[in-house]
Design a protein that fits this description.
Layout lengths: L1 E5 L4 H12 L3 E5 L2 H7 L3 E3 L20 H15 L3 E5 L6 H14 L2 E3 L7 H10 L3 E7 L6 H4 L4 H15 L10 E7 L6 E14 L6 E13 L23 E3 L6 H4 L19 E8 L2 E8 L9 H18 L7 E8 L5 H8 L14 E6 L10 E8 L5 E3 L18 E4 L2 E4 L1 E3 L2
Parallel strand pairs: 1-2, 1-4, 3-10, 4-5, 13-14, 14-19
Antiparallel strand pairs: 6-7, 6-9, 8-9, 11-12, 12-15, 13-15, 16-17, 17-18
Helix pairs in contact: 3-4, 5-7, 9-10
Length: 433
Protein backbone atom coordinates (compact mmCIF):
# COMPACT_ATOMS: atom_id res chain seq x y z
CA UNK A 1 0.00 0.00 0.00
CA UNK A 2 1.01 3.62 -0.51
CA UNK A 3 1.00 5.30 2.89
CA UNK A 4 0.88 8.87 4.19
CA UNK A 5 2.49 9.16 7.62
CA UNK A 6 1.36 11.38 10.48
CA UNK A 7 4.64 12.54 11.98
CA UNK A 8 5.31 14.77 14.96
CA UNK A 9 9.07 14.80 14.46
CA UNK A 10 9.69 12.38 17.31
CA UNK A 11 11.17 8.90 17.36
CA UNK A 12 7.85 6.99 17.47
CA UNK A 13 6.31 8.36 14.29
CA UNK A 14 9.60 8.05 12.41
CA UNK A 15 10.03 4.45 13.50
CA UNK A 16 6.40 3.75 12.55
CA UNK A 17 7.31 4.84 9.00
CA UNK A 18 10.25 2.44 9.02
CA UNK A 19 7.97 -0.40 10.12
CA UNK A 20 5.58 0.41 7.26
CA UNK A 21 8.43 0.01 4.78
CA UNK A 22 9.59 -3.17 6.52
CA UNK A 23 6.13 -4.61 5.84
CA UNK A 24 6.34 -3.66 2.17
CA UNK A 25 4.48 -0.34 2.08
CA UNK A 26 5.59 2.88 0.36
CA UNK A 27 5.67 5.96 2.56
CA UNK A 28 5.22 9.72 2.32
CA UNK A 29 4.84 11.99 5.35
CA UNK A 30 3.66 15.24 6.97
CA UNK A 31 6.21 16.97 9.24
CA UNK A 32 8.48 19.98 9.56
CA UNK A 33 9.84 21.43 6.32
CA UNK A 34 13.33 19.98 6.61
CA UNK A 35 12.01 16.45 6.87
CA UNK A 36 10.62 16.79 3.36
CA UNK A 37 14.08 17.68 2.09
CA UNK A 38 15.76 14.88 4.03
CA UNK A 39 13.35 12.26 2.75
CA UNK A 40 12.67 13.66 -0.69
CA UNK A 41 8.87 13.48 -0.42
CA UNK A 42 6.19 16.20 -0.38
CA UNK A 43 4.97 17.66 2.90
CA UNK A 44 1.32 18.47 3.61
CA UNK A 45 0.68 20.59 6.67
CA UNK A 46 -2.18 22.49 8.23
CA UNK A 47 -2.50 24.81 11.17
CA UNK A 48 -4.89 23.32 13.73
CA UNK A 49 -7.99 25.50 13.98
CA UNK A 50 -10.22 23.25 16.03
CA UNK A 51 -10.07 22.32 19.69
CA UNK A 52 -10.89 19.25 21.76
CA UNK A 53 -14.68 19.19 21.73
CA UNK A 54 -15.43 15.47 21.81
CA UNK A 55 -13.96 14.16 25.07
CA UNK A 56 -15.10 10.53 25.01
CA UNK A 57 -12.56 7.80 24.29
CA UNK A 58 -14.31 6.76 21.07
CA UNK A 59 -14.54 9.65 18.64
CA UNK A 60 -17.73 10.74 16.92
CA UNK A 61 -17.65 13.31 14.12
CA UNK A 62 -17.86 16.70 15.88
CA UNK A 63 -17.83 20.10 14.12
CA UNK A 64 -14.95 22.27 15.33
CA UNK A 65 -13.00 19.41 16.90
CA UNK A 66 -9.28 19.24 16.12
CA UNK A 67 -9.80 15.76 14.65
CA UNK A 68 -11.67 17.44 11.80
CA UNK A 69 -8.43 19.29 10.97
CA UNK A 70 -6.79 15.91 10.46
CA UNK A 71 -9.71 14.86 8.26
CA UNK A 72 -9.30 17.93 6.03
CA UNK A 73 -5.53 17.42 5.84
CA UNK A 74 -5.73 13.74 4.87
CA UNK A 75 -8.61 14.39 2.50
CA UNK A 76 -6.40 16.85 0.60
CA UNK A 77 -3.50 14.37 0.53
CA UNK A 78 -5.85 11.77 -0.91
CA UNK A 79 -7.13 14.24 -3.50
CA UNK A 80 -3.65 15.15 -4.71
CA UNK A 81 -2.22 11.63 -4.43
CA UNK A 82 -5.12 9.25 -5.24
CA UNK A 83 -2.90 6.18 -4.90
CA UNK A 84 -2.63 6.72 -1.13
CA UNK A 85 -4.51 3.91 0.62
CA UNK A 86 -3.21 3.94 4.21
CA UNK A 87 -2.14 6.19 7.09
CA UNK A 88 0.74 5.49 9.47
CA UNK A 89 0.80 6.76 13.05
CA UNK A 90 3.21 6.23 15.93
CA UNK A 91 0.68 5.49 18.67
CA UNK A 92 2.15 3.09 21.24
CA UNK A 93 -0.13 3.11 24.27
CA UNK A 94 -2.77 5.73 23.48
CA UNK A 95 -6.17 4.32 22.54
CA UNK A 96 -7.41 7.93 22.46
CA UNK A 97 -5.03 8.74 19.60
CA UNK A 98 -5.48 5.44 17.77
CA UNK A 99 -9.28 5.62 17.80
CA UNK A 100 -9.27 9.12 16.34
CA UNK A 101 -6.96 8.14 13.51
CA UNK A 102 -9.13 5.07 12.87
CA UNK A 103 -12.26 7.24 12.78
CA UNK A 104 -10.80 9.58 10.16
CA UNK A 105 -9.44 6.66 8.12
CA UNK A 106 -12.85 4.99 8.16
CA UNK A 107 -14.50 8.12 6.79
CA UNK A 108 -11.92 8.48 4.03
CA UNK A 109 -11.74 4.82 3.07
CA UNK A 110 -8.12 4.50 4.25
CA UNK A 111 -6.39 1.79 6.27
CA UNK A 112 -4.87 2.77 9.62
CA UNK A 113 -1.40 1.31 10.23
CA UNK A 114 -0.35 1.28 13.89
CA UNK A 115 2.64 -1.04 13.97
CA UNK A 116 3.94 0.26 17.32
CA UNK A 117 0.66 -0.01 19.19
CA UNK A 118 0.84 -2.02 22.45
CA UNK A 119 4.39 -3.17 21.78
CA UNK A 120 6.66 -3.75 24.79
CA UNK A 121 8.22 -0.33 25.31
CA UNK A 122 11.60 -1.60 26.50
CA UNK A 123 11.99 -3.78 23.42
CA UNK A 124 10.62 -1.04 21.17
CA UNK A 125 13.11 1.55 22.41
CA UNK A 126 15.95 -0.90 21.85
CA UNK A 127 14.63 -1.66 18.34
CA UNK A 128 14.53 2.03 17.45
CA UNK A 129 18.12 2.56 18.50
CA UNK A 130 19.36 -0.64 16.84
CA UNK A 131 17.60 0.26 13.59
CA UNK A 132 19.22 3.67 13.29
CA UNK A 133 16.81 6.16 14.86
CA UNK A 134 18.93 9.11 16.02
CA UNK A 135 16.65 11.21 18.21
CA UNK A 136 17.32 13.73 20.96
CA UNK A 137 15.18 14.81 23.89
CA UNK A 138 13.45 18.16 23.38
CA UNK A 139 11.28 18.06 26.49
CA UNK A 140 11.61 16.37 29.89
CA UNK A 141 8.89 16.27 32.54
CA UNK A 142 9.43 13.38 34.94
CA UNK A 143 11.05 12.47 38.22
CA UNK A 144 14.73 11.79 37.62
CA UNK A 145 14.99 13.78 34.38
CA UNK A 146 16.84 17.07 34.78
CA UNK A 147 16.43 19.68 32.01
CA UNK A 148 19.99 20.92 32.52
CA UNK A 149 21.44 17.41 32.18
CA UNK A 150 19.14 15.42 29.93
CA UNK A 151 17.78 17.80 27.28
CA UNK A 152 19.45 17.44 23.88
CA UNK A 153 20.75 13.95 24.67
CA UNK A 154 20.35 11.07 22.23
CA UNK A 155 18.00 8.30 23.30
CA UNK A 156 20.83 5.81 22.76
CA UNK A 157 22.81 7.66 25.42
CA UNK A 158 19.82 7.74 27.81
CA UNK A 159 18.52 4.19 27.26
CA UNK A 160 20.09 2.55 30.32
CA UNK A 161 19.19 5.54 32.51
CA UNK A 162 15.56 5.41 31.35
CA UNK A 163 15.38 1.74 32.33
CA UNK A 164 16.79 2.66 35.73
CA UNK A 165 14.06 5.30 36.15
CA UNK A 166 11.48 2.70 35.17
CA UNK A 167 12.66 0.45 38.00
CA UNK A 168 12.78 3.32 40.50
CA UNK A 169 9.67 5.30 39.60
CA UNK A 170 7.74 3.26 37.03
CA UNK A 171 8.16 5.67 34.12
CA UNK A 172 7.37 4.68 30.53
CA UNK A 173 10.73 4.19 28.82
CA UNK A 174 9.31 5.40 25.49
CA UNK A 175 7.87 8.50 27.15
CA UNK A 176 4.24 7.48 26.60
CA UNK A 177 3.22 9.10 29.87
CA UNK A 178 4.63 12.47 28.79
CA UNK A 179 7.91 11.86 30.61
CA UNK A 180 9.87 13.18 27.64
CA UNK A 181 9.50 14.21 23.99
CA UNK A 182 12.01 13.70 21.19
CA UNK A 183 13.04 15.07 17.80
CA UNK A 184 14.54 12.80 15.15
CA UNK A 185 17.72 14.12 13.56
CA UNK A 186 18.51 11.10 11.40
CA UNK A 187 17.14 7.71 10.45
CA UNK A 188 17.39 5.31 7.49
CA UNK A 189 14.47 7.10 5.80
CA UNK A 190 16.50 10.31 5.53
CA UNK A 191 17.97 9.40 2.16
CA UNK A 192 19.21 12.87 1.20
CA UNK A 193 20.49 14.47 4.39
CA UNK A 194 20.53 14.43 8.18
CA UNK A 195 19.66 17.33 10.50
CA UNK A 196 22.51 18.82 12.53
CA UNK A 197 21.55 20.98 15.50
CA UNK A 198 24.05 23.85 15.78
CA UNK A 199 22.62 25.86 18.64
CA UNK A 200 19.75 25.55 21.07
CA UNK A 201 18.32 27.11 24.20
CA UNK A 202 16.96 25.34 27.27
CA UNK A 203 13.78 26.93 28.60
CA UNK A 204 12.66 25.93 32.08
CA UNK A 205 8.85 25.76 32.26
CA UNK A 206 8.70 24.51 35.83
CA UNK A 207 11.42 24.41 38.47
CA UNK A 208 9.58 21.80 40.53
CA UNK A 209 12.09 20.13 42.85
CA UNK A 210 10.71 16.63 42.15
CA UNK A 211 9.90 16.71 38.43
CA UNK A 212 11.12 19.90 36.73
CA UNK A 213 9.85 20.59 33.21
CA UNK A 214 12.18 21.90 30.53
CA UNK A 215 12.02 22.37 26.76
CA UNK A 216 14.78 22.58 24.18
CA UNK A 217 14.29 25.34 21.60
CA UNK A 218 16.45 24.96 18.45
CA UNK A 219 18.08 28.26 17.48
CA UNK A 220 20.21 27.17 14.53
CA UNK A 221 20.58 24.00 12.48
CA UNK A 222 21.65 22.82 9.05
CA UNK A 223 21.29 19.82 6.78
CA UNK A 224 24.29 17.60 6.23
CA UNK A 225 24.15 15.87 2.87
CA UNK A 226 24.51 12.11 2.69
CA UNK A 227 27.03 11.35 -0.03
CA UNK A 228 26.14 7.68 -0.35
CA UNK A 229 22.70 6.46 0.54
CA UNK A 230 22.40 2.90 1.78
CA UNK A 231 19.23 3.77 3.64
CA UNK A 232 15.99 1.89 3.79
CA UNK A 233 13.70 3.47 1.21
CA UNK A 234 10.07 2.88 0.42
CA UNK A 235 9.64 5.73 -2.02
CA UNK A 236 8.63 4.40 -5.41
CA UNK A 237 8.55 6.95 -8.20
CA UNK A 238 7.09 4.48 -10.69
CA UNK A 239 3.46 5.06 -9.83
CA UNK A 240 0.56 7.24 -10.92
CA UNK A 241 1.84 10.35 -9.11
CA UNK A 242 3.65 13.09 -10.99
CA UNK A 243 6.10 13.91 -8.20
CA UNK A 244 7.74 16.73 -10.13
CA UNK A 245 4.45 18.63 -10.25
CA UNK A 246 3.81 18.25 -6.53
CA UNK A 247 5.04 21.16 -4.44
CA UNK A 248 7.54 20.18 -1.74
CA UNK A 249 5.39 22.06 0.77
CA UNK A 250 1.60 22.10 0.53
CA UNK A 251 -0.37 24.30 2.93
CA UNK A 252 -3.88 22.89 3.44
CA UNK A 253 -6.59 25.43 4.19
CA UNK A 254 -10.29 25.06 5.03
CA UNK A 255 -12.59 25.39 8.02
CA UNK A 256 -12.54 22.58 10.59
CA UNK A 257 -16.35 22.44 10.26
CA UNK A 258 -15.81 21.47 6.63
CA UNK A 259 -14.80 17.90 7.48
CA UNK A 260 -18.21 17.14 8.95
CA UNK A 261 -20.00 18.53 5.91
CA UNK A 262 -17.88 16.35 3.62
CA UNK A 263 -19.07 13.20 5.33
CA UNK A 264 -22.52 11.81 4.83
CA UNK A 265 -24.63 12.16 7.97
CA UNK A 266 -26.07 9.11 9.68
CA UNK A 267 -29.31 8.01 8.10
CA UNK A 268 -31.81 5.89 9.96
CA UNK A 269 -32.12 2.97 7.57
CA UNK A 270 -35.00 1.50 9.50
CA UNK A 271 -37.33 4.02 7.88
CA UNK A 272 -36.88 2.41 4.47
CA UNK A 273 -37.35 -1.11 5.80
CA UNK A 274 -39.62 -3.12 3.57
CA UNK A 275 -42.71 -4.26 5.41
CA UNK A 276 -42.31 -7.85 6.52
CA UNK A 277 -45.16 -10.06 7.57
CA UNK A 278 -44.74 -10.40 11.32
CA UNK A 279 -45.49 -14.11 11.35
CA UNK A 280 -42.48 -14.76 9.13
CA UNK A 281 -40.08 -13.35 11.75
CA UNK A 282 -39.21 -16.09 14.21
CA UNK A 283 -37.44 -15.53 17.52
CA UNK A 284 -36.37 -17.82 20.36
CA UNK A 285 -34.80 -17.08 23.73
CA UNK A 286 -32.67 -19.14 26.12
CA UNK A 287 -31.65 -17.87 29.57
CA UNK A 288 -28.72 -18.91 31.76
CA UNK A 289 -27.51 -17.13 34.91
CA UNK A 290 -26.90 -13.46 34.08
CA UNK A 291 -26.91 -13.95 30.31
CA UNK A 292 -29.45 -15.00 27.73
CA UNK A 293 -29.37 -15.67 24.00
CA UNK A 294 -31.86 -14.79 21.28
CA UNK A 295 -32.11 -16.22 17.79
CA UNK A 296 -33.98 -14.57 14.94
CA UNK A 297 -34.61 -15.57 11.35
CA UNK A 298 -37.05 -14.94 8.52
CA UNK A 299 -39.02 -18.09 7.83
CA UNK A 300 -39.43 -18.95 4.13
CA UNK A 301 -38.21 -15.51 3.01
CA UNK A 302 -36.95 -16.94 -0.28
CA UNK A 303 -40.50 -16.63 -1.61
CA UNK A 304 -40.76 -12.87 -0.99
CA UNK A 305 -37.26 -11.51 -0.23
CA UNK A 306 -35.25 -9.52 -2.74
CA UNK A 307 -31.91 -10.34 -1.11
CA UNK A 308 -29.66 -10.51 1.94
CA UNK A 309 -29.91 -6.81 2.73
CA UNK A 310 -33.68 -6.96 3.13
CA UNK A 311 -33.59 -10.10 5.27
CA UNK A 312 -30.79 -8.81 7.49
CA UNK A 313 -32.54 -5.48 8.06
CA UNK A 314 -35.69 -7.26 9.18
CA UNK A 315 -33.86 -9.62 11.52
CA UNK A 316 -31.67 -6.91 13.08
CA UNK A 317 -34.66 -4.65 13.61
CA UNK A 318 -36.60 -7.45 15.30
CA UNK A 319 -33.72 -8.17 17.68
CA UNK A 320 -33.30 -4.46 18.41
CA UNK A 321 -36.98 -4.16 19.34
CA UNK A 322 -36.76 -7.26 21.54
CA UNK A 323 -33.73 -5.87 23.37
CA UNK A 324 -35.57 -2.61 24.05
CA UNK A 325 -38.61 -4.55 25.26
CA UNK A 326 -36.40 -6.33 27.82
CA UNK A 327 -34.82 -3.05 28.90
CA UNK A 328 -31.53 -3.59 27.08
CA UNK A 329 -29.71 -2.32 24.00
CA UNK A 330 -26.88 -3.31 21.70
CA UNK A 331 -24.39 -2.28 24.41
CA UNK A 332 -25.54 -5.31 26.43
CA UNK A 333 -24.72 -7.74 23.62
CA UNK A 334 -21.54 -9.75 24.21
CA UNK A 335 -21.41 -11.78 21.03
CA UNK A 336 -23.22 -12.18 17.73
CA UNK A 337 -23.35 -15.27 15.53
CA UNK A 338 -24.20 -14.10 12.02
CA UNK A 339 -25.14 -16.87 9.60
CA UNK A 340 -25.55 -15.93 5.94
CA UNK A 341 -26.46 -17.98 2.91
CA UNK A 342 -23.58 -16.73 0.75
CA UNK A 343 -20.19 -15.53 2.03
CA UNK A 344 -19.72 -13.63 -1.23
CA UNK A 345 -22.19 -11.14 0.25
CA UNK A 346 -19.98 -10.51 3.30
CA UNK A 347 -19.52 -6.84 2.36
CA UNK A 348 -23.25 -6.34 1.88
CA UNK A 349 -23.87 -7.90 5.29
CA UNK A 350 -21.38 -5.50 6.91
CA UNK A 351 -22.91 -2.45 5.21
CA UNK A 352 -26.31 -3.32 6.65
CA UNK A 353 -24.92 -4.43 10.02
CA UNK A 354 -23.16 -1.11 10.78
CA UNK A 355 -26.38 0.83 10.33
CA UNK A 356 -27.80 -0.92 13.39
CA UNK A 357 -24.80 -1.74 15.59
CA UNK A 358 -22.65 1.37 16.03
CA UNK A 359 -20.03 2.63 18.44
CA UNK A 360 -22.50 5.32 19.56
CA UNK A 361 -24.95 2.63 20.66
CA UNK A 362 -22.23 0.51 22.30
CA UNK A 363 -20.40 2.70 24.80
CA UNK A 364 -18.36 -0.24 26.09
CA UNK A 365 -17.40 -1.35 22.59
CA UNK A 366 -19.18 -3.12 19.75
CA UNK A 367 -19.74 -6.85 20.34
CA UNK A 368 -17.52 -9.55 18.87
CA UNK A 369 -18.97 -11.53 16.00
CA UNK A 370 -18.60 -14.73 14.05
CA UNK A 371 -19.76 -14.90 10.44
CA UNK A 372 -20.53 -18.33 9.04
CA UNK A 373 -21.87 -19.43 5.67
CA UNK A 374 -24.63 -22.04 5.92
CA UNK A 375 -27.18 -23.41 3.41
CA UNK A 376 -30.00 -21.45 5.03
CA UNK A 377 -32.20 -21.21 1.94
CA UNK A 378 -32.32 -24.97 1.57
CA UNK A 379 -33.95 -25.31 4.99
CA UNK A 380 -36.25 -22.30 4.69
CA UNK A 381 -34.40 -19.97 7.09
CA UNK A 382 -33.94 -17.06 4.72
CA UNK A 383 -30.65 -15.45 3.82
CA UNK A 384 -29.70 -14.27 7.33
CA UNK A 385 -29.96 -15.96 10.72
CA UNK A 386 -28.68 -14.22 13.86
CA UNK A 387 -28.01 -15.35 17.41
CA UNK A 388 -27.03 -12.79 20.06
CA UNK A 389 -25.64 -13.40 23.54
CA UNK A 390 -26.84 -10.72 25.96
CA UNK A 391 -25.76 -9.86 29.50
CA UNK A 392 -27.72 -7.98 32.13
CA UNK A 393 -24.62 -6.18 33.43
CA UNK A 394 -22.05 -3.83 31.92
CA UNK A 395 -18.81 -5.49 32.96
CA UNK A 396 -17.60 -6.57 29.53
CA UNK A 397 -14.22 -5.52 28.14
CA UNK A 398 -13.52 -5.50 24.42
CA UNK A 399 -10.55 -5.51 22.07
CA UNK A 400 -11.56 -3.47 19.02
CA UNK A 401 -8.57 -2.54 16.88
CA UNK A 402 -9.30 -1.38 13.35
CA UNK A 403 -5.67 -0.49 12.68
CA UNK A 404 -3.24 -2.98 11.19
CA UNK A 405 -0.73 -3.73 13.96
CA UNK A 406 2.07 -6.19 14.65
CA UNK A 407 0.02 -8.38 16.96
CA UNK A 408 -3.73 -7.71 17.05
CA UNK A 409 -5.90 -10.04 14.91
CA UNK A 410 -6.85 -8.34 11.67
CA UNK A 411 -10.27 -6.69 11.92
CA UNK A 412 -12.09 -7.40 8.65
CA UNK A 413 -15.54 -6.35 9.83
CA UNK A 414 -17.39 -3.88 12.07
CA UNK A 415 -16.95 -5.85 15.28
CA UNK A 416 -14.52 -6.31 18.15
CA UNK A 417 -11.85 -8.97 17.85
CA UNK A 418 -12.55 -10.22 21.37
CA UNK A 419 -14.92 -9.61 24.28
CA UNK A 420 -14.08 -10.60 27.86
CA UNK A 421 -16.95 -11.21 30.28
CA UNK A 422 -16.92 -13.15 33.55
CA UNK A 423 -13.56 -14.76 32.69
CA UNK A 424 -14.91 -16.03 29.35
CA UNK A 425 -13.23 -14.69 26.20
CA UNK A 426 -15.46 -14.50 23.13
CA UNK A 427 -13.35 -14.38 19.94
CA UNK A 428 -14.38 -13.10 16.51
CA UNK A 429 -13.99 -15.32 13.45
CA UNK A 430 -15.36 -15.99 9.96
CA UNK A 431 -15.92 -19.30 8.16
CA UNK A 432 -17.00 -19.92 4.58
CA UNK A 433 -18.56 -23.07 3.22
Amino acid sequence: MKVVALVSGGKDSCYAMMKCIQYGHQVGHQIIVRYAECMGVPLFRRRIRGSTRHHNLSYRMTPGDEVEDMFILLNEVKRQIPSITAVSSGAIASDYQRLRVESVCSRLGLVSLAYLWKQDQSLLLQEMITNGIVAITVKVAAMGLDPTKHLGKEIAHLESYLHKLKELYGINVCGEGGEYETMTLDCPLFINARIVLDEFQVVLHSSDSIAPVGVLHPLAFHLESKAESTSLSGINRNDDVCWEKLALICEVQGDCFQGCEATCPYVDVVSDLVAVTEDKLQISKTKKDNTFSMCCWLQDSCKTSTGLQEDLKAVLKKIELQLVEYGFGWENVLYIHLYIADMNEFSTANETYVKFITQEKCHFGVPSRSTIELPLLQVGLGRAYIEVLVTNDQSKRVLHVQSVSCWAPSCIGPYSQATLHKEILHMAWAVGA
